[in-house]
Structure formats: structure tokens, C-alpha cells
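Q: For a teaching session next week I want to show students how multiple molecules come together into a single three-dimensional assembly. I've collected the sequence lines for a complex. Could you give me the predicted C-alpha cells for the whole thing so I can convert them for display?
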Amino acid sequence: MTATVKLDEISRALGKEPLCGSLDKEVCGCYAGDLLSWVMSHASYGDVWITIMSNINVAAVASLTECACVIMAEGVEPDADTLKAAGEKDITLFSDQRSVYELCCLVGKVLCKNE
Amino acid sequence: MPDDVVRFCFDVDGDDFSSAGAASVEVKKRLRQLGISPEVIRRVAIAMYEGEINMVIHADGGKALVEVTPDEVRMTLEDHGPGIADVELAMQEGYSTARENIRSLGFGAGMGLPNMKKYTDTMHIDTEVGRGTTVVMTVKI
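A: Of course. Below is the structure for the complete assembly, covering every listed component.
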């Protein structure tokens, strides 16, 4: 995907504000995955990262990969440490009830619309 | 020429997953300040993070030394953990000795060492069971 949109468009599509982090970021793509080593080596700058992981290491991986935001899917919510770490690193974090698949479709639609 | 080398040292805490990745994030920041290219930084950060996580999971922490020369970034990760009994086996993707509680955090996929090799230009493992492990990796600039 080559389209670039602002993160606030993703926020609008989700119909919610992030738990932490700014919306003034560039979104270039989307990646879904839970194995952190795998995500580390495959997610790219500007990706929306969709995962069911919620522990504090998500914040480290999000920071290292420079993804645009993390969406915790399937109703997963970050624990207090993760939220704190994400806030400190300016990682934009959403939590959503939808499935990983539904969220991928939703993000895909936003990106494709802007292509 | 010592003047051409920039060094960063980090202590990696054992069994502390809350700070795991801290050294990698710091290295990334410093390399960016030095004007290193984003692709090199990305490769260093991945290799460093995997190494850091390995030290936390398996070795109760250790030390990380990062040296930047005009030609390369060299990472030396040293621990006094249990050592690796079979390096060839440990290098295979998918092989892991991590415990179940570690796997539930999203680690232990058996990708650590393979990722470190994949994202660096050279990697050397010096290990002895009961003594510890030192991994030296370089990424050309």
C-alpha cells in the first residue's frame, strides 16, 4: 500500500479517540500480528499495527518499528504499565471490540480510499 | 583510530520485561543523532532488541556494548547465563527453549537468533554451557 493518510482518519473510521498518543501522524500501511519477533521484522514505519497482545513489550515493539499506532483488537485492553509506557513514548493506542480481520478491512478501506 | 569510534554501554536487567527493549530504543535514538541511515538503524534495532530479549529470557540479563565506526555498527552482547548447548539447533527458526509464560507474552517463537543473523552482516556466537554467551554482530554503514 502506498497511500498516506493522517492517523485522525483512522480514528474517525474507528469511531473513537485513542487511549493515548497523538493523531498527528502519518499512516502508510497496516500490519497484523502477535508474535513480537515477527512483528519486529515485518512491520514498517507508519503501519497501523493490529494485535491481540496487550503487555508492555507491545510499547517497545511499536516504538522500535515506528508504527503509526497500535490497535488492540477483539476487546483486548492494555494493562496499566503498557498504557503508561505507550504514553511516555507517544505511541498512539486504540482498543476495539472488532476482530483482527474486521479491523484490517476497516483500515484497508481508509488507505484504499486515499490511493 | 579510537577517535573515530562512538561507544554506548547498556546494562540489560534480567527477568525485567517491563524495561526490555530500553537499550534498543536508546541505541536507535543515538544512531539517529549520528545521522545513520534509517535502514541501518532499523536492522541494528531489530538485532539489538532480539539480543536484549534473549538476555532477559535466558540469561538473567547482561551487558550490551554498541560501537559505531565510520564503516559499521558493532554490537557486543555479553551474558553470564546458561550458555547455548547446541548453537546450530538454536539458530533454526522455530526452535525455542522459552517457557510457556514467556510465550504468552509474544516471545519464544524461535525467531530471535535467526532474526539477529538475518538483519546483520556478520554474527559470531561465543558460548559455553554454564559460563555464558557473547554475541558479536556488525551492520555495515
